[in-house]
Amino acid sequence: MYSGGVDSVGVLYRLLTDDAYAAFAIRVHHMQLINREKRAAAEKQAVNQTLKLFAGKKFRPFTFTHCLHDYSFMKRDMIWDMDIANFMAANICAGDRDIVHVARGRTRTDLKTGGEMLLKRSERAMNIFNAIIEPSKSEATIIYPVIDLDKTEIWQMLPKPFREASWYCRTPIYDKAGKAYPCNRCVTCREMREVYEACGEKPPVLPKGLVPTPKEGIRAVVKRVQTSRATFTKKAAMKKA
Ligand SMILES: [Zn+2]
Prior knowledge:
Elements: H1 6-17, E1 26-34, H2 40-54, E2 62-70, H3 81-95, E3 101-103, H4 108-113, H5 115-133, E4 141-143, H6 151-157, H7 160-165, E5 173-174, E6 180-181, H8 187-198, H9 218-240
Parallel strand pairs: 1-2, 3-4
Antiparallel strand pairs: 5-6
Helix pairs in contact: 3-5
The protein binds zinc ion.
Protein name: 7-cyano-7-deazaguanine synthase
InterPro entries: Rossmann-like_a/b/a_fold
């Protein structure tokens, strides 16, 4: 399952270069997830750019498929990406028994900083995966090719063009041409700031004129949801009339 994110690019880099995976036929699947974080376009740019690099002669061959999940109508809540990724992966494996492993991008950093929340979310996502796999004829399992690395080590493993082409921010800012920039304030941007520092590098800065979206307070969220509900009801009433 490929997102174009740094961890995910690290996984694919290992799968296509490490001798331990030389006998594997690699199928890359990108699940484009449209939600209120507006990450989908930035991730798609990263997927396209990194796969172009992986298509070079230095790497083993792979095939590519993708799907689109549009949940942009959810204004307040979101579907957890880990849940939906495991749901999709399990269904793909149940339908194609040639697939024996699903590679996911968990890192040593996730294990260290994820805490209780990550454990709970992982358990739920695994239950979703197993609920579909167990009654099927698939014996697919989930593997974690970069679980021994922390984020900094993944960054150091990737050649510079791959680092520049991969994505990490949860709430990207887009310029007029649609190019995505990291917000430099979300949780993954904060994690990456430490990675850049450890490697003696500087995170990309927002071009002049682009400002991060202000963090939305709970009152603003409630107001936005109420307005959106009122508009929806009004539109439905007009349709009826
Ligand atoms: Zn960010």
